[in-house]
Amino acid sequence: MLAHRCSDCGVRDRSLCSSLTDEELAAIVPLGQHRHMARGDALLHEGDSPLVCANVQAGVLKIASVTRSGAESIVGLLYPGDFVGHPFAGTHEFDVVALTEVDLCVFPRLVFERMLGDHRRMEQMLLSRTLAELDRARGWLVQMARATAAAKVAGFLDDMAQRLVPSDCQRGLGLGIGARFDLPLSRGEIADLLGLTIETVSRQMTRLGAAGIIGLPGGRGIIVVNPAALAAAAQDS
Amino acid sequence: MLAHRCSDCGVRDRSLCSSLTDEELAAIVPLGQHRHMARGDALLHEGDSPLVCANVQAGVLKIASVTRSGAESIVGLLYPGDFVGHPFAGTHEFDVVALTEVDLCVFPRLVFERMLGDHRRMEQMLLSRTLAELDRARGWLVQMARATAAAKVAGFLDDMAQRLVPSDCQRGLGLGIGARFDLPLSRGEIADLLGLTIETVSRQMTRLGAAGIIGLPGGRGIIVVNPAALAAAAQDS
DNA sequence: CGCATGCTTTGATCGGCGTCAATGCCGGCC
DNA sequence: GGCCGGCATTGACGCCGATCAAAGCATGCG
User: CA B170, C1' C17: Å apart?
Assistant: First the structure.
């Protein structure tokens, strides 16, 4: 049974809701709905008028667009605590699709806009986060524009490890040695995300494995054996 | 003599100020300062605490970061009407430098934050614009990840033409035939922006010229001879 | 169990873009 | 005017990653 009450919510302290007091939160709870998505389910479609805004409680989603040549291009990922939606806007440009089982806290767009009006701190936090997300996307731009295939793959794994793992070991001194997690993306999706081909991604991952930097325990499992070397590999121009 | 009064401001109807009535605007005028920048002047430095927020009145700026290998990477451009700054945040990640003569309307950050508090419509517009800018950056990501050098250069010129030219011919049916403008960037800066080398940019531009799609009247001038072909070239995978 | 299907890995070859190098063009300064 | 330094163009060559091709390896179904 999943958390339908904020007191049970795993991202109470990380999501936009962290800008609200318990009392404020109690007032808006009835406005939101819990929603579960299976892998592959779409929350929003490219070109839709954005009907909903949501907080990610658990799972990972991809933000993607389909080019006219048919290939999908992934432009970002959403992790627990992240916000999805486009308040005060008519359309939005990308598909949002679940990569894993996902739990969301969903608000109709107009309701969410009213909430922003009632809770200035939340609106400020959303603005600040969006600006930060913009900087993040721009950082990626540099990586996509300049980095070699090896650096892109290493950077992706490094980023993913930091996003997925420290939910437990509260972000202390970097990443624990031997951190293990499962990639929420297939090789093909990683290739889309990084602007590479499946073959190149596969080759680079085997290379990282052979170098002893990561372990590949079959399937989608990843073990970060040497976090420092992984981070370093991400920055070899 | 440049416009120091909002009634003379060239972007009154396009900037954040368009969310304000004339009366509201009159109230905040004394809080802002006009500022002029010469080519190469920096408004903000990477890692600074962001002291100011500003609207671009005229000119073009670049948003860039310097990689540890010393090369500069340009991640975005700012045009008249655009907003610069990072309210409610401690640091910001990029340099902002003038590419041409630039006129700005500058507010100290704390003053600007107070303004946002007093003018909800402006805050909403800023949020909406930031979300739109995020989508824009993500669209670029696709281009950077997948497009060929030819498509990147064509796309850049197409985008630049649409940003610089229609300030006159109010964005009617696309771009007028024979639109002429001067690039605010050197070949090297274009190369940085697109993640290419100077040589490749130069070659692709000569190719576009030889194909009769653009004219290159020397220096930084560009004539868009065949806008449709330019847009098409931007999308050849 | 045996086969089919889809994902991943590995190998061989090709082409686009980066690199290195030389030349051309233009404005500034003596 | 003539020299000089910065930027742009053009050419020759090599390397990285895409492409084409084939062989593991899982999972599911008859």
Answer: 38
Angle at Cα B236 formed by Cα B234 and Cα B237, nearest 5°? 115
For residue B155, give the nearest of B164, B146, B147 by alpha carbon: B147
Count of beta carbons in the 10 Å neighbourhood of residue B17: 22
Nearest-by-CA chain B residue for A193: B145
Q: Which of the nucleotides lies closest to B198 (Cα–C1')?
A: D8
Closest nucleotide to B186 by C1' from CA: D7
**DSSP conformation letters of B91-109:** ----EEEESS-EEEEEEEH
**DSSP letters of A188-213?**
HHHHHHHT--HHHHHHHHHHHHHTTS
The span from the CA of B157 to the CA of B201, in Å, is 11
CA end-to-end distance (rounded Å), chain B: 47
DSSP B15: S
Render pLDDT for B120-163 as a digit per residue (tens, 0 to 9): 999 999 999 999 999 999 999 999 999 999 999 999 999 999 88
pLDDT, tens only, B3-20: 467 777 889 889 999 999
A50 confidence band (pLDDT: 50, 70, 90): confident
A117 contacts chain B (CB < 8 A): yes
Contact A31, A25 (CB under 8 A): no
pTM reported for the whole predicted model: 0.90
